[in-house]
Each structure stands twice: as C-alpha cells, then as structure tokens.
Specification:
Elements (H helix, E strand, L loop, with lengths): L10 H12 L7 E4 L6 H6 L5 E5 L3 H12 L7 H9 L7 H6 L1 H4 L7 H19 L5 H17 L37 E3 L3 H4 L5 E6 L8 H4 L1 H8 L25 H11 L2 E9 L6 H9 L2 E11 L15 E11 L1
Parallel strand pairs: 1-2, 1-4, 2-3, 4-5
Antiparallel strand pairs: 5-7, 6-7
Helix pairs in contact: 3-8, 3-11, 7-8, 12-13
Length: 333
C-alpha cells in the first residue's frame, strides 16, 4: 500500500540499528511495534523474535496486522474463499451509495463497478463470519486482502483526504482480489487496537519500536475510507469527502506531542526503545534527545531517503524529495 510514513524503504536501516544495539540474536526477545500502520516493521521482525506485539489506533491497521502479524499458521483452503468472493455478483451497499458517482452523484473514490464489487465482497465476508462459516483467522485474512486490493483501485492521490475529479488509469481497472499472504512461524503474536499511551501500561517486552505521526496530518482523516471498509458500519458521511468521526492523535498536535511522548517513554517497560522521526517533525531532534535522555542512555542514528510522494509530478523539485530519518535510541535504566 502507498502509505504516509511507510518504513518499507527504511527496513534495512532499522533492522541493522536494532541488531547493533540489542544484539544479533533476538530469538528470546519480545518486540513491540506500537504505532504499527501497515505493520511492515513488525513483519520484518516476525521471524527473528520470540513474539511481536503490534498496535495501532486505526481499525484498518488493526485488520492488516491481525492478518500479517497474528496469523502465523497456515489457513486451509483460504484461496478457495478468495475465488468465491471474486466471482460474486455486484451489490449496492454503503461504499457504492456514498463513495461512487452512481451512488450519490458526487464522490468518486472508486469507479461504480469497483464500489459495487467492494460492497458485495465485504457483505459476504461479514455473512460468513456471522454464520460461523469462517473463523477469526480467515476473517482477518479476507478483510486484509480486500483492503489492499481496494486500495490499488482507489481514485485518490494515494491518501483518502480527497478523491480525484476524473477516474485515473489505475482506478479504471477492475478490482482483483489478491491474497494478503502472511509469514508462517511457530510463535504466537499479539495485535491491539488501542491508544498507545494507554496500552503501554499493560504490556512489557525487550524492544519497543515507535513510529508515531510526525506532523499535523491525521491518519483518521487521511485513511477514513479504509476504516469504513474495515468496520463496514452505518453512519452519515460528513462533507464533500464523506468523512466519518475520528479521534485526533495528540502526536499530531504541537501543543500536546511533547507531553504525550514523554508519558509513553516514562511508562514503557522495555529495555531498548527506538523512535523513528524525521527532520520535519513537530518535535526537534534536540527536544526528543532531551526527553529520552532523562530515562537512560541515549544515542542517535540517521539516514537520508526519498520522502513519501502522493503523486508523480515530473515538474517537482526532486531535491526537496530528500529527507533525513532519525532513529533515536534509548537503553532504559
């Protein structure tokens, strides 16, 4: 998925730094990814550690991580269910009625055909769950497959804060339900859908990785439609973009981020803490260092990389596309 702040390109840098600090053998370690997003960091450590704890407040993220992190044993005949869903007849439902031109005559997050297909698939997944034809493991696998496949044909500039006036090329393609395959291993893992500052008081482990929002962009607004598909609940969409109600993160507030961040560090029952942040964040490098240094031995690792781009404007200033990623390190005392 195209994702603001995705650590996919930074995975090797993060992994290398964690090994340098916590040691090369992590097989007896509990690793927590407490602002998980699409879960790419937790997924990269899933085979390396005893247990991954994954958390994110956004429900679409919870769905993805219930599949990619918590699912760790093979699911029999899972492809058979995907084929059945792919072959369903179109159905008018909440997505078509509110987020397609044919439904409300205004919003165009998906083509009419794909909106009808999303509704048909999402409804059938819920029916199977309610009729106990599928278990929780298969339910989240199918939901994750739908979320990622729908995202590929969304008529947006990668985020859902707005839709495009005309259907772009990828949005004109028919939704193809692709399997959200997860890594198999013997260890069990845990996935939460909670406020990180509340969850931190209930968990413990060895390595805590933090990738909170850096700026004022709220993920609840930028990815609201993925939450809507994941939850498939009924509400009255607000405004031109069809927003749902969402809780704003204190990490997106200049006035609140410092206290929220220090509270999380203070209450963390983990030996090693790693914080991904960049040079454009609400907190400066020195502000982060000052807070983390209160609680143990502080260090810093940096790398330059290509920033997230919501479009492919050939006229953009490509020098401005470079940003510095900070990996703040704390060994707690």
């Amino acid at each position: 998925m195209n994702y603001i702040g995705s650590k996919n390109k930074l995975s090797n840098f993060i992994k290398k730094t964690v090994y340098e600090v916590a040691g090369n053998d992590l097989t007896d370690k509990v690793f927590c990814d407490i602002f998980a997003g699409t879960g790419i960091v937790g997924r990269n450590f899933k085979q390396e550690v005893k247990k991954v704890i994954s958390n994110d407040f956004e429900y679409y993220s919870f769905v993805l991580n219930k599949n990619y992190i918590e699912n760790h044993r093979p699911i029999e005949d899972k492809e058979k269910y995907l084929i059945q869903l792919q072959e369903l007849a179109p159905k008018k439902g909440f997505v078509y009625n509110n987020y397609c031109i044919g439904g409300n005559g205004e919003r165009q997050y998906f083509s009419d055909e794909n909106g009808l297909k999303i509704d048909a698939i999402r409804s059938r997944i819920e029916e199977w769950k309610n009729e106990k034809k599928i278990d929780g493991r298969l339910y989240f696998f199918l939901l994750a497959s739908l979320l990622e496949s729908a995202d590929k044909v969304a008529n947006t500039a990668s985020v859902y804060g707005a839709y495009l006036k005309n259907l772009k090329k990828s949005a004109q393609k028919e939704l193809n339900l692709v399997s959200a395959n997860f890594d198999i291993n013997k260890n069990s893992h845990e996935v939460f859908n909670e406020d990180s500052n509340i969850l931190i008081n209930k968990i413990e482990g060895d390595i805590l990785y933090m990738d909170p929002p850096y700026n004022s962009r709220q993920y609840g607004a930028n990815y609201h439609l993925l939450n809507t598909i994941a939850l498939y609940d009924k509400f009255i969409p607000k405004g031109k973009t069809g927003l749902r109600d969402y809780q704003k993160s204190e990490y997106c507030s200049k006035a609140k981020v410092h206290s929220a961040f220090e509270e999380l560090i203070k209450n963390a029952n983990f030996k090693y803490i790693f914080l991904s942040y960049n040079n454009e964040g609400l907190m400066t490098e020195n502000e982060v260092k000052k807070i983390m240094s209160k609680y143990g031995k502080y260090d810093l690792s940096t790398t330059n990389y290509q920033r997230f781009k919501a479009d492919k404007d050939e006229n953009r200033d490509h020098k401005a596309d470079k940003t510095t990623e900070y990996l703040h390190i704390l060994e707690k005392i």
